[in-house]
């Protein structure tokens, strides 16, 4: 849990990391970038490891248990910072988990970076009822940007898509643009 540099927090940010079986952890550079953007805009921000990652107990559970992990992290954050709106974020597999948990977590804002549409079953995802930003590279080698845009438009036409031309899945050399997009979305 990290605190904003100045003043009392105006939101609780929770950010989910990429796939645990492919090296995803709370220290992933995209996850850290999203967390920094939330903190720069006044959120106390929590990053956590899913089950079986680092010192966390348990083992990978295809998104089900990881959604439970997310909801437990949100509960812990809310116990420490009651009454604050939740800004929920995730990268890749973490975006899938954030989407799975956003309704139950009652997110006030949702940021998903490279949601892995086509790689996981998105059929049960509920349309977010909060403002929602999707950040996607058009050269993503793991996630088809056109498939993401089509799925997103069908689910929540009012959602915002920030398509970064030339950006790949891990946003090499483009993290400043990810941070700027998140800041523009939650700022103000």
Strand content: 15-25%
Count of individual beta strands: 6
Low-confidence segments, given as residue ranges, are: none
Give the count of helical stretches.
5
Instruction: Estimate the mean pLDDT confidence.
Output: 97
Task: Give, in order, the helices and strands.
Answer: EHEHEHEEHEH
In one word, what is the shape? globular
Strand order of the largest sheet: 2-1-3-4-5-6
Oligomer: single chain
Termini separation comes to 22 Å
Output the radius of gyration. Answer: 15 Å
The helix-and-strand class reads alpha/beta
Characterize the main sheet.
6 strands, parallel
Estimate the helix proportion, in percent.
25-40%
Notable characteristics:
globular; 188 residues; 6-stranded parallel β-sheet; 18% strand; 5 helices
């Amino acid at each position: 849990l990290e605190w904003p540099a100045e003043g009392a927090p105006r939101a609780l940010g929770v950010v989910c990391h990429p796939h645990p079986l492919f090296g995803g952890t709370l220290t992933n550079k995209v996850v850290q970038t999203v967390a920094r953007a939330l903190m720069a805009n006044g959120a106390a921000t929590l990053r956590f490891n899913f089950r079986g990652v680092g010192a966390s107990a348990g083992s990978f559970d295809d998104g089900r248990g990881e959604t439970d992990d997310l909801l437990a992290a949100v509960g812990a954050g809310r116990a420490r910072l009651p009454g604050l709106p939740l800004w929920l974020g995730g990268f890749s597999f973490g975006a899938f988990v954030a989407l799975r948990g956003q309704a139950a977590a009652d997110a006030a804002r949702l940021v998903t970076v490279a949601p892995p549409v086509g790689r996981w079953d998105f059929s049960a995802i509920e349309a977010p009822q909060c403002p929602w930003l999707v950040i996607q590279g058009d050269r993503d080698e793991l996630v088809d940007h056109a498939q993401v845009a089509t799925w997103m438009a069908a689910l929540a036409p009012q959602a915002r898509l920030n398509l970064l031309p030339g950006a790949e899945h891990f946003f090499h050399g483009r993290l400043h643009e990810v941070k700027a997009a998140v800041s523009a979305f939650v700022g103000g």
